[in-house]
Amino acid sequence: MKPKPSARKNDLVSRIGEFGLIERILSKFAIRDKRSVLVGPGDDAAVIACGEGLRLVLTTDMLVEGTHFRLEWSCPEAVGFKAVTANMSDVAAMGGAPVGIVVSLGIPASIPTRAVDMLYRGISGALSKLGGEMLGGDTVRSERITVSVAAIGTLAGERPLLRRGARAGDEVCVTGSLGRAEMGLLLLERFAGRKDKSRGSAMRAWAARRITDLKGRIPSSVRGDGYACLRKHLIPEPRMRDAVLLARQGKNAPSAMMDVSDGLSSDLRQIAVASAVGMRVYEDRIPIHPSAAGVAGYLGVSAARAALSSGEEYELLFTVAPSRLRDLMRAMSRADAAPLTVIGEVTGSVAGLRPGTVSLVSAGGRRSELTHRGFRHF
Amino acid sequence: MKPKPSARKNDLVSRIGEFGLIERILSKFAIRDKRSVLVGPGDDAAVIACGEGLRLVLTTDMLVEGTHFRLEWSCPEAVGFKAVTANMSDVAAMGGAPVGIVVSLGIPASIPTRAVDMLYRGISGALSKLGGEMLGGDTVRSERITVSVAAIGTLAGERPLLRRGARAGDEVCVTGSLGRAEMGLLLLERFAGRKDKSRGSAMRAWAARRITDLKGRIPSSVRGDGYACLRKHLIPEPRMRDAVLLARQGKNAPSAMMDVSDGLSSDLRQIAVASAVGMRVYEDRIPIHPSAAGVAGYLGVSAARAALSSGEEYELLFTVAPSRLRDLMRAMSRADAAPLTVIGEVTGSVAGLRPGTVSLVSAGGRRSELTHRGFRHF
């Protein structure tokens, strides 16, 4: 039965979901100046040509209290740091190097100034580590703490590394290893303690908290691995340097790239859909961080599943032609980059499967379709 | 009595105020690459040198439900439009021309999709009118509707038009006329009707509302002027073209410039403080929009006061050397720009007065210090 027009008009965002919403928004905008706007909305970041071969990268990401972080499970410094990371990772994922950020901060009037100081310390710390300048911002009153950052960068290589460049036959690779971010969050969910009674006391406690203070909440028998996961969840560092190295490999550069922000399974699908290809990924090749495995064992959950669903990992996920792989890996290893792992391959559109389908092959050889298991906003 | 350190630590943002907070934030960041970052935080927008004489302008502004707009008094299209205006006005105030925007949107899952459609229609409409492309964004779940925009542009003239360039003897000028934005808001406050009972029904009503629907709430005897004020409050248009014209006047270009966003009296002070000068402004020279005067008369409030305190006017406030004024005015008038009004002059630091002091001279010749009467966030 088709819904009546009036019923459709009353549809809520929760019914069309995050990706449906994004599609709907994108359909409303067409780039007018196609000579300048090399990459518009829909990828990790936009790319704009600005005279004399300079290509700018521009992106934005917003963290909202209650959605991206909870006062009880975080601290201001970590929130500031992560707001920068989320943006810089998008700059990196296009093959860009950072230039700077602007920050819009929404805060309640009853927030302790110490919280604001520490939040900006986190922002400043992230800029020192990842590169880029603090260029400006806006501070407004808001019931819930909201940190919206926009970052600009410049393209490091000859061309932007898009999601839509994957070709049948390409190898699928990921930097580093996965799983810690989700395990860190899970530890907080299990052990972070109860909610503060009043918002005032929750905000005071949040303002006074430091990253190390949260360590004490992890059971002692898993504290080493647990703290590694907690740090990854709270103050993740994107692969700024590796992204620039990858972008500068000329003909050996990735055919497609994005950052692991929603979770590997969701992000693999993004590349597959954007490139109109299929993918086959081997479960036992997905690199799991030892600390993630340690915490997963302690909590009795599957580390392999965590590696697939863990968002905010900020590793780089890319595809590369098989004939280029060896040279690329050698160059990256020589430059002392993070280890690269081939986790699968790009397939053509398989008969009977929609383009964008990602198959997961288990250790026993069993195939299943990888469903979207990453973080969803709506 | 000096506060104890522990007491200071527990200070709330509401105690130091918006400008205190901004000062505190700025003190934590130093620009590292001074060759590239021509203007850092603290002005309307940042300016970055990007090779070959290209200078980029970057800014951000966030609108939050409950702070900048209320569901009962607005509609999604207006919120989208104004979020773009606030940013583009900052680009213009530096003497920049728009390139594009990125948008971070925070919305509850229970929002009707129609509201999101209309909000983006407002954004799209603003870009069509003001220039610039939709380059990307982020959509996240948030209890309160939050629209954070970052805009980039390029500098149109030889140098950025800063707040700190005013010199003793300069004339103080403003484009267009003032007062409508505050009168529009006041009309809504008086006549917009009661709050919806549930958030769900408030959101549905907001989603269905159009700019013209709010017209019916204005008493019929003042509806013409009232709707002019309402439109200025809901969908204000910054002086994009005039800003570029002003910036391109070479040696006749303004010595300092900013946009009227917090209210004339607050913004005059911003220029005076940044330039370490005093100012004298003549009350009867401040241009009041006839519709603002009409509504003020109807409501029984002072139109002159409204012209001083009305924020979100997005007119251009600037200073210019007296020897350059005539040529500048002639050039602007020839280019069919908005009328310019000289409202006062820049004075040196007057003995006994702090730098940054703005004196208001009444029609009767009485002097008073203009206090900060614009919109304050904390």
Q: What's the topology here?
A:
The structure is a homodimer of 378-residue chains.
Chain A: H1 5-9, H2 13-26, E1 37-39, E2 46-49, E3 55-64, H3 76-93, E4 96-107, H4 113-130, E5 133-141, E6 146-155, E7 171-175, H5 180-191, H6 199-208, H7 223-234, H8 240-247, E8 256-259, H9 264-275, E9 278-282, H10 290-299, H11 303-309, E10 316-320, H12 322-334, E11 340-347, E12 358-361, E13 367-369
Parallel strand pairs in A: 4-5, 9-12
Antiparallel strand pairs in A: 1-2, 2-3, 3-6, 4-6, 7-10, 7-11, 8-10, 9-11, 12-13
Write up what this structure looks like.
The structure is a homodimer of 378-residue chains. Among the domains of chain A are: 152 residues, PurM-like C-terminal domain (Phosphoribosyl-aminoimidazole Synthetase, Chain A, domain 2), CATH 3.90.650; 47 residues, no CATH class. Chain A has 378 residues and is an alpha+beta fold. A seven-stranded mixed beta sheet of chain A has the order 8-10-7-11-9-12-13. The first copy, chain A, has a six-stranded mixed beta sheet with strand order 1-2-3-6-4-5. Chain A contains twelve helices and 13 strands. The N terminus of chain A is likely disordered. In chain A, strand 2 and strand 3 form a beta hairpin. Chains A and B meet through helix 2, strand 3, strand 4, helix 4 and strand 5 of A and helix 2, strand 3, strand 4, helix 4 and strand 5 of B.
Summarize, please.
The structure is a homodimer of 378-residue chains. With 378 residues, the first copy, chain A, is of the alpha+beta class. Chain A is 37% helix and 22% strand.
